Amino acid sequence: MSLLQVAFAWGTPDLAAYLLSLGAEPHAPATIFVPERPYHTALQYSAQLPDESLLELLLRKGASPFASPVISYGATATQFAAMSGNFKNLSHLLKHGVDINEPPGDYEGRTAIEGAAEHGRLDMVRFLLEAGANVKSKTSSNYRRTVYRAWKNGHRAICQMIQDWKDHRYGPDECESVETIVRTMTEDELDFESPAAKIRYLKWRYQQCGN
């Protein structure tokens, strides 16, 4: 963990900018000390800010837009930009070739469209659908979690927009009713990016306990 990451984690982007002006390196990887306290990369933090200047600066200094998220409560820079509804930051990242379908942290992570839906970013969700967010199959966990999280947080317009978009693009056979998604959602499907992610996370927790 670097001092630059601490500055972002403490919510002091001005301090982060000052450290960068002094030559702070932006390459420290995301890390975690306890399951609920991740430290993201500097770029991942900056993607959440309304002002894109720090993200642009970090990219110029060579910060990787492809850096992996931490295993618990982690997200990529792309996912943080989507959750925040920040089109400018997302645009900068897309120009660097990021994938909007990249996986999040194994435990309690959010894909780009899932996080955007959860936070009520209707325009961002629509953009991600058109950009190729992977929601085609009616059994897709990404589709199911996206609809569920929008519903859970009261964003019914997003649920309806996704359903209408899928019906138009793929046909009704690839749509599942919101009621069925809500009724059949499981804790494991919500908590873990995939069954393989659950195994990785449990192994990681076991190793943490052993240390």
TrEMBL record:
In terms of InterPro entries, this protein maps to: Ankyrin_rpt, Ankyrin_rpt-contain_sf
Q: Which PROSITE patterns match?
A: ANK_REP_REGION, ANK_REPEAT
Q: Which UniProt keywords apply?
A: ANK repeat, Repeat
Q: Which principal EC class is assigned to this enzyme?
A: transferase
Q: Where are the transmembrane segments?
A: none
The domain of life is: Eukaryota
The protein's matches in Gene3D superfamilies, at most eight in alphabetical order, are given as: Ankyrin repeat-containing domain (1.25.40.20)
Q: Where are the ANK repeats?
A: 73-105, 108-140
Enzyme Commission code = 2.3.1.225
Supply one GO molecular-function term: protein-cysteine S-palmitoyltransferase activity
Return the protein name: protein S-acyltransferase
